[in-house]
């Protein structure tokens, strides 16, 4: 019934009762009904609310989600607080599906009650931090709807979004890419400003922000998407953001879209037309793809024509014109007219072929179809205006046409031409005027105006022959129905016919009428479209659509890039649920971090000698970070769907090349006091997930390096041992992992000959003992380093810790991340290793 | 909630356009924007209130049509009216407040089971529904396009390499443009979570490709191997474009002689189709169609084989040729009767050609091997090649 468009609201109470129905199909249909009519019958709709509230607590995530969906779709203002509560709850739901639904609900609530904006922004902020691909697209959509101006919310999530992008579902990709385009426009410097900037001088040479690069790199594979909208979104991103040299990559993908449905073609061609004005070279290799088939719909034909015209240059003009020749004979008259105009534009743009074009057009004048002739007359008029002198022949020919052509625009054009160049055709002009005067009353307005013009011009140049005719025409015009024509006639009469009263103006009449007129410039109607964001609805319509947001201009100065550094506390704030989820992904993410982490530690280790050196180190650290991100992103791309397999490959890739690396000699743990705080924060920014990593990079002395207990004070009878992974290469054997031990004597007696004995090697596990500690005074602490080769496994290493009196059985189990060693690798090497 | 009156603008535009294809895809109205797609002789219109990438909407509409087709076999007005409940349910799942939700047909089918005769019978007896009550697992997993727990007794994977030649041939028979567009359609019915790799003998041929989301882009970049966990059932794995440098071997030629004479009411019409560079394969399913000028009243033609139809209203001539026998070339000869007194049309009609060649990929693309990992059984594999005419036009 709804489908038939009838108003079914009378049945509302009866239908709503069914909401508690068990049958899911009925339930769904009731939902559809509710969403449609709830706004009209607000009170009754409230009856159903409690069902949804119950649904929100259901253990089945599907039911929770659909309850939230319907609840948020019911547009009844009274339940806004309930909705708000439901959204907030769902935003921290276990299931990402429910969280996604929560993100969807946000714009719905916002459109119902915009006062909730602040609260909603909080929810959006929380959801933006979500790491599942499922949620990302929806939340960005909500962000765009509710608070597109709050660009600061994106900073922290920028890199994450870039990296997740490829795994987000396709609709989300479109929204995210569009959002990132705007973001990048505000946050990065223009890559194309070099030319102008050079003249301004004193500007630093442009270096692309690594994050900008990251965006470009991560979106590029999406050009391969099967979804035309995604391809278009990437194309506009490249067009707006990429350096000139790189924009070319999108051409191929766009040309591919031309094979798609005609509606897609239509939109793509619109965009190509705009692009081809600015960057002609980009599409030139694909010229032939824009050739027109007789089966294309007219609008597509015209757009293709537009593109072809834009692409025309000296080298390819002959082929294009040959194509045009075939088009002119088409049956589709609108298209023929457009072709003729296109020829005119080619002729104006490329001087070389102007004569050929003109000749071709003149031939068309003998075409039987009136529309064709009319259109060519108009175009010829424009062309002739550029170089009138040589073409009196053509003008004569056209004058003859006035007898046959009926299309007013063409008649007017001819008359104008004759009037303008009446000196070139002195014999014909008065004759034409005579004929026109005869038929004056039957002409269209536009033709009448031109007749008056012609008469005036003739009167001035050749008053002998045409004086009477002019008088006659002006008299006719005086009693015309159209006031425009009456006005014109009166004005001209005053101007040209000398009377006693008319003064100075009279003398200038000739100048006024026969002044050199500038030739019109034929240009593309797509010329002014490029200020709209490509691919947007506004661009397509060439008018601002509701809710269109201007693409901001490039900033002059890059805003602080560090805002995008993810701060550690952000992650610790995550709910426990987040963390649990995290664990699943951990083996995969952490190893690339493991890779990036130690890299930094090596970097900063060198720089720690002095504060100055340390400061100088900062940019390098950033670089290292970038590399880490790279490793992450390359692995991130497709590894997520494949699960464990690439993760292991990566792990071996990271672990196996250990031996060839020549690590810097172990340095004494640097005293951290001199480390400037800026470095600290910078390094903090580097860690992506694991809180414990960051400070560890600096030095254990900061105390934050995660230490594990080896021997508790109670079991050790006063002797307590803690160990941590110092993340420095073990000097004696590169295969071994250095373990730093803190041995503390809490007894009141001296502990003597502390050593390791009888290690129980477990399938290849080797242990390099630390030198025996002769004695440890009460209350004293000793720090030693031992090496363990875990053989790339996470098996615990068991051994005995001996004192002069006792033996303690202990074991050390390494976390995966600690088995890594830093390796410098180029991207290619990395790929190779990963390929293995 | 909008009223139906917004669509009036659309009907207006539709009336204005001479042919259905000429309706502009985007129509601005005072408060809304109407975006439409035209498929299977039905318009699907989306109403939009604010700025949105138009392709986003158009692509979605196409996806909706694809889904309907998937569900009901064909997408026609009758079909939609008959299944209005399912249509509503599907749309409800696909869209939430104007944002696409689930568009993978694998997921949708789990949510709402497609109607079959058997199920209708079962449903009426047991009172159960078409709506699945479990959240499809794919929605949450890392492979959103595949459902879990797929089971088949016969495990099979079929791949069809289909290439289409788009060409424009000019009057004298020389090629103006010709390019090859190909797709690989797959029908995979495999148990569990198979991980497939497909490699080509000559992957260099592929110039521009677009993948189903399941294909791992990295491996294609580095090794030119397609590695993927397939969706269940039919899907398009890849579409590609063969690089423009390779010259395209056009497998057929058309000889034509169409002439009108001024003053006379008769015109001559003659077409012959013949094979050219077919690599020993027969050309099948040849169809010649041509839009005749308005002045043509009727045609009296005799084909040497096949059947022909001329529709005097739309002026469309179509000739179903069938197989081409190289010894005896098919031809269509006869006269056209023109409107008396009308001058001769200034354009000769273009000829659209359709044909099929089995067991041949015209670009020479060959699949090397298909391997499966992750599952133990041995699947049955099959690969079929086919070349078709895409937009193949001969100007006369």
From TrEMBL, chain A:
Q: Does the keyword Membrane apply?
A: yes
Instruction: Name a single GO cellular component.
Output: endomembrane system
Report the main location listed first in the record. membrane
Q: Name one GO biological process term.
A: vesicle-mediated transport
Which Pfam families does the record cross-reference, listed alphabetically? Adaptin_N, AP3B1_C
The AP-3 complex subunit beta C-terminal domain is annotated at: 659-795
Keywords for the protein's UniProt record, in alphabetical order: Membrane, Protein transport, Transport
User: What InterPro entries does its record include?
Assistant: AP3_beta, AP3B_C, AP_beta, ARM-like, ARM-type_fold, Clathrin/coatomer_adapt-like_N
Q: So what family is this one in?
A: Belongs to the adaptor complexes large subunit family.
Which PANTHER family does the protein's record reference?
ADAPTOR COMPLEX SUBUNIT BETA FAMILY MEMBER (PTHR11134)
Put simply, this protein is called: AP-3 complex subunit beta-2
Q: Which organism is it from?
A: Tinamus guttatus (White-throated tinamou)
TrEMBL record, chain B:
Keyword Membrane listed? The answer is yes
Q: Does the keyword Transport apply?
A: yes
Q: Which residues belong to any copy of the MHD domain?
A: 154-395
Report the domain of life of the source organism.
Answer: Eukaryota
Q: Name one GO cellular component term.
A: cytoplasmic vesicle membrane
Membrane topology, as annotated, equals: Peripheral membrane protein
Supply the Pfam families for this chain.
Adap_comp_sub
Question: Where is it predominantly found?
Answer: membrane
- For this UniProt record, give its keywords in alphabetical order, as a comma-separated list: Cytoplasmic vesicle, Golgi apparatus, Membrane, Protein transport, Transport
Q: Which InterPro entries match?
A: Adaptor_comp_med_subunit, AP2_Mu_C_sf, Clathrin_mu, Clathrin_mu_CS, Longin-like_dom_sf, MHD
Q: Where in the cell is it found?
A: Cytoplasmic vesicle membrane; Golgi apparatus
- What GO biological process terms does the UniProt entry carry, in alphabetical order? intracellular protein transport; vesicle-mediated transport
Q: Which residues form the signal peptide?
A: none
What does the similarity note say? Belongs to the adaptor complexes medium subunit family.
Q: Which PANTHER family match?
A: AP COMPLEX SUBUNIT MU (PTHR10529)
Q: Under which name does UniProt file this protein?
A: AP-3 complex subunit mu-2
Which organism is this entry from? Tinamus guttatus
């Amino acid at each position: 019934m709804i489908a038939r468009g009838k108003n079914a609201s009378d049945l509302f109470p009866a239908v709503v009762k069914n909401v508690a129905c068990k049958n899911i199909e009925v339930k769904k249909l009731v939902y559809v009904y509710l969403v449609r009519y709830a706004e009209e019958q607000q009170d009754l709709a409230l009856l159903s609310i409690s069902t949804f509230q119950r649904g929100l607590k259901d253990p089945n995530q599907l039911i929770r989600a659909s309850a939230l969906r319907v609840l948020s779709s019911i547009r009844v203002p009274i339940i806004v607080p309930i909705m708000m509560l439901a959204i907030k709850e769902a935003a921290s739901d276990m299931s990402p599906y429910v969280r996604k639904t929560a993100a969807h609900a946000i714009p719905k609530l916002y459109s119902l009650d915009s006062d909730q904006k602040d609260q909603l922004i909080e929810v959006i902020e929380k959801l933006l931090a979500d790491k599942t691909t499922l949620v990302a697209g929806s939340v960005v959509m909500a962000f765009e709807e509710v608070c597109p101006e709050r660009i600061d919310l994106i900073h922290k999530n920028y890199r994450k979004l870039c990296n997740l992008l490829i795994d987000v579902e396709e609709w989300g990709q479109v929204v995210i890419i569009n959002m990132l385009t705007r973001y990048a426009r505000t946050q990065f410097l223009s890559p194309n400003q070099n030319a102008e900037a050079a003249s301004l001088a004193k500007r630093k040479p442009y270096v692309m922000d690594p994050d900008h690069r990251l965006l470009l790199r991560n979106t590029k594979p999406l050009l391969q998407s099967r979804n035309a909208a995604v391809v278009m979104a990437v194309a506009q991103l490249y067009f707006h953001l990429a350096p000139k040299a790189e924009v070319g990559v999108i051409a191929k993908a766009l040309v591919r879209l031309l094979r798609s449905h005609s509606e897609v073609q239509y939109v793509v061609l619109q965009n190509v037309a705009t692009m081809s004005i600015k960057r002609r070279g980009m599409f030139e290799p694909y010229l032939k793809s824009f050739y027109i088939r007789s089966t294309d719909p007219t609008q597509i034909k015209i757009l293709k024509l537009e593109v072809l015209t834009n692409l025309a240059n000296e080298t390819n003009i002959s082929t294009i014109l040959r194509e045009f020749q075939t088009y002119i004979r088409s049956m589709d008259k609108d298209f023929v007219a457009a072709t003729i105009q296109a020829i005119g534009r080619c002729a104006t743009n490329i001087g070389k072929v102007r004569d050929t074009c003109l000749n071709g057009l003149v031939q068309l004048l003998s075409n039987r179809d009136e529309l064709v002739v009319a259109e060519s007359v108009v175009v010829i008029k424009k062309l002739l205006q550029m170089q009138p002198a040589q073409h009196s022949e053509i003008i004569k020919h056209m004058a003859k046409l006035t007898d046959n052509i009926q299309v007013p625009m063409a008649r007017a054009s001819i008359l104008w031409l004759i009037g303008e160049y009446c000196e070139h055709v002195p014999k014909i002009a008065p004759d034409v005027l005579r004929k026109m005067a005869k038929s004056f009353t039957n002409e269209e307005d536009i033709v009448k105006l031109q007749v008056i013009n012609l008469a005036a011009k003739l009167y001035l140049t050749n008053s002998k022959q045409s004086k009477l005719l002019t008088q006659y025409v002006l008299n006719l015009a005086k009693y015309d129905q159209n006031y425009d024509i009456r006005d014109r006639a009166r004005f001209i009469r005053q101007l040209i016919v000398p009377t006693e009263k008319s003064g100075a103006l009279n003398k200038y009449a000739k100048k006024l009428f026969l002044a050199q007129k500038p030739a019109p410039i034929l240009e593309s109607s797509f010329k002014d479209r490029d200020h709209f964001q490509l691919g947007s609805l506004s661009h397509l319509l060439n008018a601002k659509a509701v809710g269109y947001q201007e693409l901001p201009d490039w900033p002059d100065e890059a805003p602080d890039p560090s805002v995008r550094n993810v701060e550690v506390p952000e992650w610790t704030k995550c709910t426990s649920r987040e963390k649990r989820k995290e664990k699943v992904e951990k083996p995969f993410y952490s190893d690339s971090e493991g890779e990036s982490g130690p890299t930094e530690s090596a970097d900063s280790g060198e720089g720690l000698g002095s504060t100055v050196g340390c400061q100088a180190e900062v940019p390098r650290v950033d670089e290292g970070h970038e590399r880490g991100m790279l490793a992450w992103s390359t692995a991130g791309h497709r590894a997520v769907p494949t699960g464990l397999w690439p993760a292991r490959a990566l792990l071996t890739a990271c672990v196996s090349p250990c031996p060839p690396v020549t690590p810097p000699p172990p340095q004494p743990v640097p005293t951290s006091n001199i480390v400037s705080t800026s470095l600290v924060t910078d390094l903090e920014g580097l860690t992506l997930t694991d809180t414990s990593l960051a400070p560890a990079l600096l030095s254990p002395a900061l105390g934050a390096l995660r230490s594990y207990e080896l021997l508790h004070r109670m079991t050790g009878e006063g002797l307590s041992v803690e160990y941590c992974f110092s993340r420095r290469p073990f000097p004696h054997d590169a295969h071994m992992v250095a373990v730093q031990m803190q041995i503390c004597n809490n007894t009141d007696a001296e502990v003597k000959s502390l050593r390791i004995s009888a290690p129980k090697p477990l399938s290849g596990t080797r242990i390099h003992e630390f030198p025996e500690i002769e004695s440890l005074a009460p209350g004293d602490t000793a720090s030693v380093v031992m090496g363990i080769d875990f053989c790339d496994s996470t098996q615990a290493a068991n051994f005995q810790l001996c004192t002069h009196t006792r033996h303690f059985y202990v074991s050390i189990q390494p976390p995966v991340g600690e088995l890594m060693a830093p390796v410098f690798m180029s991207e290619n090497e990395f790929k190779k290793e990963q390929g293995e | 909630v909008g009223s139906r009156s917004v669509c009036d603008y659309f009907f207006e535009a539709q009336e204005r356009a001479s042919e259905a294809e000429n309706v502009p895809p985007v129509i601005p109205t005072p408060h809304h924007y109407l975006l439409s797609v035209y498929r299977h002789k039905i318009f699907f219109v989306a109403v939009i209130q604010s700025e949105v990438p138009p392709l986003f909407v158009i692509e979605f509409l196409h996806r909706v049509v694809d889904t309907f087709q998937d569900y009901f076999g064909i997408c026609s007005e009758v079909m939609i009216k008959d299944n209005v409940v399912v249509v509503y349910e599907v749309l409800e799942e696909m869209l939430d407040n104007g944002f696409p939700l689930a568009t993978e047909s694998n997921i949708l089918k789990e949510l709402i089971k497609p109607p079959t005769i058997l199920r209708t019978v079962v449903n009426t007896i047991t009172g159960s529904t078409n709506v699945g009550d479990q959240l499809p697992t794919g929605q949450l997993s890392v492979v959103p396009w595949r459902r879990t727990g797929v089971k088949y007794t016969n495990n099979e994977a079929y791949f069809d390499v289909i290439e289409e030649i788009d060409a424009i041939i000019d009057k004298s028979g020389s090629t103006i443009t010709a390019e090859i567009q190909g797709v690989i359609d797959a029908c995979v019915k495999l148990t569990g979570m198979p991980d497939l790799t497909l490699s080509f003998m000559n992957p260099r041929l592929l110039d521009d490709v677009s993948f189903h989301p399941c294909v791992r882009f990295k491996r294609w970049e580095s090794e030119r191997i397609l590695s993927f966990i397939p969706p269940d059932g039919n899907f398009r794995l890849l579409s590609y474009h063969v690089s423009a440098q390779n010259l395209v071997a056009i497998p057929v030629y058309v000889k034509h002689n169409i002439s009108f004479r001024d003053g006379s009411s008769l015109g001559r019409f003659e077409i012959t189709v013949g094979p050219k560079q077919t690599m020993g394969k027969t050309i099948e399913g040849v169809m010649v169609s041509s839009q005749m000028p308005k002045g043509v009243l009727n045609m009296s033609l005799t084909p040497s084989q096949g059947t022909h139809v001329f529709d005097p209203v739309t002026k469309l001539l179509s000739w179903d040729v069938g197989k081409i026998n190289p010894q005896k070339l098919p031809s269509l000869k006869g006269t056209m009767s023109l409107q008396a007194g009308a001058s001769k049309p200034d354009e000769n009609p273009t000829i659209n050609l359709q044909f099929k060649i089995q067991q041949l990929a015209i670009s020479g693309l060959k699949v090397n091997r298909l391997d499966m990992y992750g599952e133990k059984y041995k699947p049955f594999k099959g690969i079929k090649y086919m070349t078709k005419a895409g937009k193949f036009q001969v100007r006369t």
